[in-house]
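@channel anyone free to eyeball this complex?
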Amino acid sequence: MTESLTVRDNRTGQEYDVPIADGTIKAADLGKIKAGDDEPGLAVYDPGFVNTASCRSSVTYIDGEKGILEYRGYPIEQLAEGSTFLEVAYLLIHGALPTKAEYEQWEHEITFHTFVHENVKGFMEGFRYDAHPMGMLMASVGALSTFYPEASMIQDAENRQMQIVRMIAKMPTLGAWSFRHAQGKPFVYPDNELSYTANFLSMLFKMSESKYEADERLVKALDTLFILHADHEQNCSTNAVRSVGSSQVDPYSAVAAGIGALYGPLHGGANEAVLRMLRRIGSKSEIPAFIEGVKNGNERLMGFGHRVYKNYDPRAKIIKKACDDVFEVTGVNPLLEIAQELEKIALEDEYFVQRKLYPNVDFYSGLIYEAFQFPPEMFTVLFAIGRTPGWLAQWLELTQDKEQKIARPKQIYTGDRGLEFTPRDVRWA
Ligand code: ACO
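replying in thread with the prediction:
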């Protein structure tokens, strides 16, 4: 089989042989196809990069048809079952699972960088009383670049590692403080005797007790949710991190851009929409009427369907299981019954079967977060904490990829040309 594409340009009658490698052709090869010597080369129009590979990556593998998700080759189900978020973070950053000594060192480093400069605290206290925690997180991660100006030396491997450790370590501190600010509660300093996730819960919920120790089942469930969100290849926020990072800016600024992308309702906000939908449905008896509304095109079944997964999102299966553990501690969220029945009916319905619409990661995650007593504004903050190692692994890969260039897509210009400017005093006379 010849691994190439023969293209005939009907404008000129000329034929071109375009090599195929890894199931792709190089856009630069298409650029050689021209209608005339002075004409621009052929380009690809692809809003949202729906069918354009922007990089080579060995971080995450997804097969959406089969419902497979792997980090560095390890199936997500196995990592969620047997690993910890910090170990998964190590795997994503370093490309291999740690030895015992490497893990202990990693855990020690992350644990001892959880504190932030006191001025960061002052900075965060300056936000309006009702500031959205995601906006606070985005701004404070960006602000960290001013506290660590050496982070701009992105060619230095040791320096890169230092910033990666700092960012993974400080994200829960900034996330928890963003939460406490809106509640008018004092910020809680990190407790370095606790695990990564237990410490996060302590910074969120500790009041006057001398030590806050969360129920182990809750710690495990939240840790699992972080694992499930740790990376998802070239999604909108990761693409933002890579795009901004391609200018060779420091990683705090690049990750702040990723947080900005995740802030948007089309990316990080679907689980909140699921909760609103379940509340609106209100009871199991109303489900058939709701499903009819969806099929008639009046509604969308939120938490169903995915651009990549045309099968059960593997993360949704794991979250569904985690629901049981969390509700054992917190009591069952009454919306769970509606969600389960809705899923059952939808999975048997021809409309959803035909379109390969299955539950995605957001169908059950909002229910769990609500059981933790997180307000919906915090859902994306939790997502951002989980996604940080993925953003950083992708950023690290970018900094060492010789094929990468500054991100600068082409456009198809649709505006005017060569207009003559008339000064204001003439135009307005
Ligand atoms: N409810 C009802 N119908 C749906 C749904 C849904 N949730 N999702 C897709 N469809 C239908 C579309 O109407 C379309 O039908 P048609 O062929 O008759 O026109 C068909 O299925 C294909 O859908 P597209 O919109 O073309 O699929 P796309 O890949 O563009 O969209 C998306 C994916 C945006 C996730 C969509 O499924 C959706 O809106 N889902 C609900 C929102 C949601 O849960 N988002 C979270 C995604 S996970 C994440 O981002 C972390």
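from a first look: The longest strand covers residues 4-9.
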